[in-house]
Amino acid sequence: MDKLAIVVPCYNEEEVLHIAADALRDVLDDLIRKQKIAQDSFLLFVNDGSKDRTWELIEEEHAAHPAQIRGVKLAGNVGHQFALTAGLLIAKDRSDVAISIDADLQDDVSVIEEMIDKYHAGNDIVYGVRSNRKKDSFFKRFTAQGFYRFMGIMGVKTIYNHADFRLMSKRALEQFSQYGENNLFLRGIVPLIGYQTDCVYYERKERVAGESKYPLKKMLALAFNGITSFSIKPISLITWLGCVIIVGSVLAAVYALISYFTGNVVQGWTSLILSIWFIGGVQLLAIGMVGQYIGKIYVEVKHRPRYNVEKVLE
Ligand code: UDP
Ligand code: MG
Question: Against a cut of 0.90, is the pTM above it?
C-alpha cells in the first residue's frame, strides 16, 4: 500500500488551519478505510514564516494527532512556491506519493480520491484543473486567462487552469529535486518532468476563512517570473524588431530620397532621417544579439536536467 503525504503551505492561516486539518484528516481516514493508501499516510503543514498563530496551531494539531499530522517550520517567509517546494522535498523522503493543496480549501478535497485512483492507474502526475471560473470576479478571470494564453505565446508549457493542486509520485519528485533553479515557477517545471499524466476536474470554491495572500502585486510577480524563467523569447523578439526596422529603413530611405529629389525639403532632413532609421535598427539588433548570449548564459546557469530516463531494458 502506498503512503500518501498531503502537503499544505500556510502563511498567516490561523483562521483556516483547524478547519483544513479536520477536512484533510477526514480524507485520509476515508482513503485508508477504502484501502487506497497506507495506514501511516500523513498531512504535512509547512509554516511559511507566518506572523500570526499558525505555527502554534500546527503544533497543537500535531500533539492531538501525532501520527497523522506533521509540521515543518520555515525560518522566515519565502513565498508560496518555495514553501511548497520545501514541503514536497521533505515529503519525498517520507512517502511514496504526495499531493499539494492550499490551506484555504478552495481546491475541492473530494477529488483527492480520484487523484489517487489515477495514480494507481499508472499516472505519475495528476493535475487538479478548474472546470470553470464562474466564482471568480471578471477581473481575476480575465487576467488569469490572459496569463495562460500569454504564457503559451511565449513558449512556456503550462496546464490551462491548473494551479498548484496536484499529485506527484515519488519518482516525479526525485526528478523535480534535480531542478536547482532559484526563480521557481512550479507550474512550468512540472510539465517538463514527463511521465504519464492525467487531470481531474473540480470547481474552485471561495476561501473558507481569512483573505487571499496573493494580492495583485504578487500575482503579477508570479506571472512575470513564469515568463522570464522559462522563455528567452522576449529577447528574440527584440532581435526581430531590429531586423524589421533595418528593412523599414530601406523604405524610409526611398521615401527620403524621393522627397529630396522632388525638392521642398529642409536642408539636412534627408541625412538625418536616413541615420535615425538605420542606426535605430542596428542598435536594436545589437542589443538583441547581446541578449541572445545572455539568454544562453541564463539557460546554462540554471543547470536543469537535460532528460529524464524512464526505463532501460538490458
Ligand atoms: N502562501 C504561502 N506563502 C506566501 C503566500 C501564500 O505559503 O507567502 C500559501 C497560503 O497560505 C495558501 C496558498 O499559499 O495556502 C495560496 O495562497 P492564497 O489562497 O492566499 O492564494 P489565492 O488562492 O488567493 O490565489
Ligand atoms: Mg486561495
Answer: no
**Backbone phi and psi for residue 23, each to the nearest 5 degrees, phi listed first:** -65, -40
pLDDT in tens, 211-258: 888 888 888 888 888 888 888 888 999 999 999 999 999 999 999 889
Q: Which atom of ligand 1 is nearest to the CA of 77?
A: 8
Helix, strand, or coil here: 200? strand
* Shortest-distance ligand to the CA of residue 214: 1
Probe residue for ligand 1, chosen from 10, 54, 72, 80 as the CB with the greatest number of ligand atoms within 8 Å: 80
Torsion over CA of 142, 147, 152 and 155, rounded to 10 degrees?
A: 160
CA atoms lying within 13 Å on the CB side of residue 164: 23
The C-alpha atoms of residue 281 and residue 23 are separated, in whole angstroms, by 60
Helix (H, G, I), strand (E, B) or coil at 217: helix
Q: 188-216 b/e with 16+ CB inside 10 Å = b?
A: bbbeebeeebbbbebebeebeeeeebeee
